[in-house]
Each structure stands twice: as structure tokens, then as C-alpha cells.
Amino acid sequence: MTRRDFWVLAGANFAIALGYGVILPLLPTMLNDMAGVATPAAVAWHTAALLGSYMLGLFATAPLWGAVSDRIGGRGLLVFGMCGYAAALIAFAMAGSLTSAYSWRVLAGVAGGAVLPVVNTSIGNVPDRPVRARLFASASMATLLGLLAGPAVSALVYAAMQRMGDVSEMTSTILVLPTATAAVFALCVAVSVALGGVWTGAAYAADPARRAHRIVWRQASPALFASFLVLFGLGAFEAVLPVLNPTALSLNPPALGALLALCMVVMLAVQTGLFLVPILHRVARGPFLAAGFLVLAAGMALLGQAGSLAGAALAVVLVGAGGAFLQPAIAYLATLNDAGASGTLLGALTGAGSLGQGLGSFAGGALYATFDANGLWVLAVGLAGGAAWIGAPVRAGAARLN
């Protein structure tokens, strides 16, 4: 894999994350202007559901797109996915009803599902394990940079609109400007792929002996469960934080953007450390993964009782640190099986994570609407229980494969 190939793949991750991140701080503002959303509880439900619908679109299609990439290669899918994602972003920003908003979020997930398995499979086909682990950390850094840039762009636009007048009368402008930025970047990646191609590793479908089979899925099942669980927690966190801040912490969208940016900065710092100190291929094991889940659970519990910006910031730091280690470690772990990295298997990994994030978004909104901030304690207990369960199978599998 050349440097240009990696930068194109990293740019695809960045574009997908940027499009997701620009929407996060502005969903409550958008929903307040829509018919059928009249109460804070309704805003909480629909914020979570819109986030979840995108992830469910990814879940439903990523394994299918991964299987297609095994047969036809990843170049065409990258172009298709990036163009479709750009179109869905712009259409969502201009949606005038809840029905159309949900439809475009699902279609954005479908388009993103054509991109992420190709990126992971391309990196997973790098034969050198330490290099592969570092590339996974770098690709995760690109995602984090997109998630960091997204809320920052939205916060800047919102602040500028505030200085110009009543933001409640400018919702369309507030949404279109940030999403157009993400759409343009996605189109630039598509053009780069179309003009110059991209390395996607070995032709997996041409080698039947390496195709995934029953024992391979058994080997990969701990990674699939771990991907589901960590993104379930992060999805709940993303759904609760936007609706937590107006009631418990009295923060406006720029302050919410700052908290989300803090989370991404912490994640970026952790993953930069994993890149500079190449130890990821040694610590993708059960005890370390369990510790990561416990840190994530502690952040959730602390957020549930935070009564100040400082308390919320500390909770966000813990959530970011736990998630930053777990995501690239799980992606690397999924490639340690007898069949290597197939689009089908890594598409399933994307799908498992997307299902977890989608259900986490729904669960976070539902628990908060029902129990207020106490619902975060339920999530924390679930993550801690998952940490205890996942340690043994991951430890055994990593010991055999390493």
C-alpha cells in the first residue's frame, strides 16, 4: 500500500465522520422547527432515532457491500459510496418533514456502508501485522479528526448565525452550510479514487481457500461482539449528550460542540500514542479490552451524575479514552483469523458496530426520556458486564493466533 493509497482511504473515513459530526450539535435545533416535535421528550426520542436510523442503514448493508467488494473490488464501491453519501447529506439538510429526514439518514447509512468495509479490508490485507495495526490506528485517527471537525464547523456556523439574528429562523442555512462542507469533501475523495484508483489488497474472491467459513466466524465472534458493545455505548453517549445539556447543564450548541470536540481530542491523543508507540498488535487482548470497557463504563456513570461543566468534561474524557483504544484494537483483532481480511467479514464487523451504535442511540434516548440522567447508570452497568464477559474468549483467541 502506497502513501497515496492510505491517504485516500483515510480521506474516505474522514469524510464519512465529518458528515456525521456536523449534524450532531444541530439536531435539537432542527427538530424544534419540525411538526410533530413539541416537547423536550419528543426531541430526545427523535434525536436518538435519527442517529440510530443512520446506523441501522449501515448495519443492513455493510455486510452485503463487503461481499460485493470481495467479488468486484473496492474502487467502484468507494466512488459510489462517497457520491451517494454527499447527496444524502445535502438532502437531509433540506428535509422539511420527519419522514424525509429519516429517509435520508437511512440512505446516508446505506452509502456509508459501501465505503467503510472497503477501507477496513484494504488495511486488513496488509501482510505485516505491526504495520497493519498502525494503519488501523491511523485510519481511526482520520475518523476522529472528522468527528472533531464536524461539531466544530457546526458550532462556528451556529455562532455566526446567532450574531446575525434569531437562529430559530435560520435552521435551513445552519444545516446546509456544514453539511455542504462535508459533501464537498466526500466528492473530492470520490474524484481522487476515480482518477487514480486505490489499492484494496489481494483479490479475496479469487482465492477460495481463504474464504470465510464456519470456524473463521467462530474465531471472529469475540471481535464482532466487542464491536457491537463499544459502539452501543458510544451511540448512547452521542444520543444523550445533546439532550442532556439544555436541561442539566444549561449549555448552548457551541458549548455542546466544545464537549464533543474534547471527546475527540482525547480519542485522537490516545490513538496518536498507539501510532507513535506501535504496541496495538500486542495489547489487542482480553484483559486490555476489558479495561477499556471499564473506563468507558466509568465515563457513562460519571456523566449520569454530572452537575457542572467540569464534571461533564471529566466524563467525556473517560468515554473518549476508552473508545479510542477499543475501536482500532477490535478492528485489528478481527483480521487475526485463518482466512485473513475479507470484505464479507469486515463488512460484518462494520455491521455489528453499526447495529450497536444504532441500538445504543435508541436505548440512550429511551432511557433518558424515561429516567432522565439516571438512565446512564443502566448503560454503565451493561458495559461493565460486557467487559467481564468478553475478556475470556478474546484472551483465548488472541493467545492462539498471536
Q: What is the domain tally?
A: 1
The name CATH uses for the topology is Growth Hormone, Chain: A
Q: How many beta strands in the DSSP annotation?
A: 0
CATH class (first level) name: Mainly Alpha
The CATH superfamily is MFS general substrate transporter like domains
Shape: globular
Largest sheet: none
Q: Which regions contain 5 or more consecutive residues with pLDDT less than 50?
A: 202-213, 395-402
- Report helical residue fraction: over 70%
Q: Note the run of SSEs as H and E.
A: HHHHHHHHHHHHHHH
Distance between the termini: 23 Å
- Mean pLDDT rating: 79
**What share of the residues does DSSP label as strand, in percent?**
under 5%
CATH architectural type: Up-down Bundle
Secondary-structure-derived class = mainly alpha
What's the tally of helices? 15
Give Rg in angstroms: 20 Å
Provide the fold topology.
Elements: H1 3-23, H2 27-32, H3 40-72, H4 75-93, H5 98-113, H6 116-124, H7 129-164, H8 171-196, H9 214-249, H10 253-276, H11 280-283, H12 286-305, H13 309-334, H14 343-371, H15 375-401
Helix pairs in contact: 1-4, 1-6, 1-7, 1-8, 3-5, 3-6, 3-9, 3-14, 4-5, 4-8, 6-7, 6-14, 7-8, 7-10, 7-13, 9-12, 9-13, 9-14, 9-15, 10-13, 12-13, 12-15, 14-15
Could you explain how this protein is built, in words?
This protein is mainly alpha-helical and 402 residues long. It has a single domain (3-202, 213-401), classed as MFS general substrate transporter like domains (Growth Hormone, Chain: A). Helix content is 83%, strand content 0%. Helix 1 packs parallel to helix 7 (129-164), helix 3 (40-72) runs antiparallel to helix 9 (214-249) and helix 4 (75-93) runs antiparallel to helix 8 (171-196). The longest helix has 36 residues, at 129-164. The radius of gyration is 20 Å and the shape is globular. The model is unreliable at 202-213 and 395-402 (pLDDT under 50).
